[in-house]
Design goal:
The structure holds two protein chains of two kinds.
Chain A lengths: L3 H20 L3 E4 L4 H14 L8 E4 L6 H14 L3 E4 L2 H5 L4 H25 L3 E3 L16 E4 L27 E4 L7 H10 L11 E8 L2 E4 L14 E6 L10 E4 L5 H10 L17 H8 L3
Parallel strand pairs in A: 1-2, 1-4, 2-3, 4-6
Antiparallel strand pairs in A: 5-6, 7-8, 7-9, 8-10, 9-10
Helix pairs in contact in A: 1-2, 2-6, 6-7
Chain B lengths: L4 E7 L6 H11 L5 H14 L9 H4 L3 H6 L6 E6 L4 E6 L6 H9 L4 E7 L6 H12 L5 E6 L8 H17 L5 E5 L23 H7 L12 E3 L2 E3 L7 E5 L4 E2 L4 E4 L5 E8 L8 E2 L3 E6 L10 E3 L5 E12 L5 E2 L3 E6 L2 E15 L4 E3 L3 E2 L4 E14 L6 H4 E5 L6 E11 L14 H7 L5 E6 L6 H14 L4 E5 H6 L9 H20 L3 E5 L5 H10 L5 E7 L2 H7 L4 H6 L21 E4 L5 H14 L5
Helix pairs in contact in B: 11-17, 13-14
Classes of the chains: A alpha/beta, B alpha/beta.
The complex binds guanosine-5'-diphosphate (GDP).
Chain lengths: 299, 613
Amino acid sequence: MLPAHLKLLEAESIHILREAAAQASNPVLLYSIGKDSSALLHLTRKAFHPARPPFPLLHIDTTWKFRDMIRFRDELVARFGLELRKHTNPEGLARNINPFDHGSVVYNQIMKTDALKQALTEGRYDIAIGGARRDEERSRAKERIFSVRAPGHVWDPKLQRPELWNLYNASLAPGETMRVFPLSNWTELDVWTYIRAEAIDVVPLYFAAERPVVMRDGAMIMVDDERMRLLPGEVPERRRVRFRSLGCYPFSAAVESAASNLDEIIEEMLTTRVSERAGRLIDQDQDSSMETKKRDGYF
Amino acid sequence: MASSLLRVLTCGSVDDGKSTLIGRLLFEFGTVPEDVMAALERDSKRFGTVAEGVDYALLVDGLSAEREQGVTIDVAYRFFQTASRRFILADAPGHEQYTRNMATGASTADVAVLLVDARKGLLAQTRRHAAIAWLMGVRQIVLVVNKMDLAGFEQGVFERIVADFDALRARLGDIPVTAIPICARDGDNVIQPGERMGWYGGPSLLAALEAAQPAREAAGRPFRMPVQLVNRPDPSFRGYAGTVASGRVRPGDAIANAAGAVAACVARIVTMDGDLLEASAGEAVTLVLDREIDVSRGDVLAAEPAPVAADELTAWVVWMTDTPLFRGRAYGVMLGTRTVTGTVTALAAKLDIDTLEEVPVQELRLNEIGRVTISLTRPLICEPYADSRTLGGFILVDRLSGDTVGAGMVIAARARPRNLHWHQLDVDKTVRAALKGQKPAVLWFTGLSASGKSTIANLVERRLAAMGRHTMVLDGDNVRHGLNRDLGFTEADRVENIRRIAEVAKLFVDAGLIVLVSFISPYRAERGLARDTVEAGEFIEIYVDTPVEECRRRDPKGLYVKADAGQLRNFTGVDAPYEAPTAPELHLPTMEQPAEALAEQVVAELRARGIIS
Ligand SMILES: Nc1nc2c(ncn2[C@@H]2O[C@H](COP(=O)(O)OP(=O)(O)O)[C@@H](O)[C@H]2O)c(=O)[nH]1
């Protein structure tokens, strides 16, 4: 049974998804394979049932995602008969931009931010739907549900519109685009509780299992494939770990955990206090770095 | 559990301790992640205003630009959860632009928390916040008197403030108020009762919020659902997707498209979890009807008694942008799931937020609240805001930029009496025009004073007359001597001036004429209004493009000289702007060709468009 507050949040998200689809001329859903994307996709299927979602999924593939993530993505797309579009920054690929040689700032800029902007521009999408939440980071508390992007996909605080009632204004001036965040009012706990109540599938990496990891700068990094470069003296050891947040494997730190099912994950969440994004090393580059990235066009 | 989600608006004046209070709520509920805590300790040293320890206020300041200046500039949404409830806080800043932000936060709020500094008591700002919350439909207030430590935790101080607020309450329809004395910094009465105020027997702030009732649509409202989209995966299924705005619906219920009033019965209430036996306000569903009726996005499915299909609204409007609202301006009106064009036909008054009295005004500025009448190009299904936030709340959208420029609350909706509706007369515009061997049109010449509008318009008219066409010229200057002689040159008057000219042009078009309007018409929005007055294809915008230096050199009436000398105010090109057309049907650069050649171009364009043969 869905807790009452989740029923209300679910209805709100469905309303938002329908508004986005109805007002857009060429919408797309940004699918990142993580738990938020799983919840978002489930809500999308509900919003348009019995029809299929009226927009394709777009995945920005940096080529450094965990192998489990890609497997999960492809199975899901096949199971629900979804249309998946993938994009990798061709320039980045040609220059072999990778997490080891180029560092997180350059790598993220080229393989994530630039790639996303390329894909949105090439696809001529007017509305891109994403799974960001307001509780993820403090600068997001002020993000709109329908967030206008100036030409070049940049976020300009002055362009942001007041949002009243459940009226979402998706009008765009030439060159502008819109990001829509149906999960704005959800918390991390809400997402997990919803996933449990609705029996939604998520990538197995969220559940604890023995995995090969190395300790690096106080973070546990999983050795996902042979491309992982070990530093002198580093020897992978097997530990019982799981991931609270999934990105590119060299930048997603694991946490030691015994939580191997949804009940245990939720139990663990209620007792620990490490913010989920702390596991994603990219956000700690600079102070207020989320805000900087948002202005720049990253989510 | 039905009341498990509460939406709370928090407002106060700068430094009342609002951020401290919210930060404490977030902190004490363990919803603050550790990395944010770490950043907080770091930031407290850098920006904090508390001498020692953690400054909770920093928890809630979002953007770095704001943090560095120590202010908040936008509505922030924050969440916390207790055993019995999930809360959404809309945190509106207490200074600049507060009306716009407060209105936004209040539009969805069940309860407003008003913060007052015990030493300062009720400020003008507190009264304004209460008034705005009330106007936006919030019907419960929690009055929080903070910094009781600085008032010696004295009961008398608290009671004086409560008594002051009672006087205001009477003017806000006796809205229920819970008053709580607190010390946000130390936590007294925030979550637990504070021992230092033993004289206070009421609930802590948290207890009050846990007990508050969420705002509900008034009980017993009839079923309404604005249709978001028609779900049609294949020919065998046709469903109408939307969120129920009020009332409830069951299979078998008779409902109708409120605009068409053709009834059908609900056959199924479809969701991915299976069909429902009933759906009520707030639920997102897909309805299947037992027969095909004409329904599309923007329509409202409704049970009896049917809501009004309004041609005209009176409403309170909160103005949210720098350019003022004028009578005569047209905007997109978005209500429910439909957007139509609406023209502000009257600006009756603005609300003095301090006295709650109405004062007459000419224009509505940023953060002002006015009572306006809006006439709609297509009907909107709506209800008074007091009955339904969903069918009574609307936004105004700038048709060029797409920005949301205002928020409105329907006071009353009127349908034009049907017998006044435009009859499909037997002899109509088409017939009249056909008799003259032409199609009617408006040739709208725009450009600076002395750019050559009238010269070219006269040449065109002469040519058309020579060809046996029927025309009429409307000259901006001449119309001012007669029809519009009551109007001056303020921005509001200019808008009205252009509205009348557009309406007169339309009447001539109905008479089947080719109307030549030569009129500076410097603002894009106003020309857009004129364009919308006639049918698509009938409006031909002609930009007479002459550089201002050349106009100034020609200056046949000596107007530029006067304007430069300060004898004429608001003169386009001197101390008022000219917004050149971005996509005129015809662009005439007068420096490149003589007037005769340009007039010939206009005639050629009329031929190309089939207006003359
Ligand atoms: N003495 C005392 N100071 C307080 C209390 N609550 C907040 N303050 C202080 O008042 C100042 C303004 O607080 P802040 O929360 O930033 O106010 P805001 O502008 O309403 O968000 C800060 O220096 C706080 O430490 C209180 O209960 N007692």
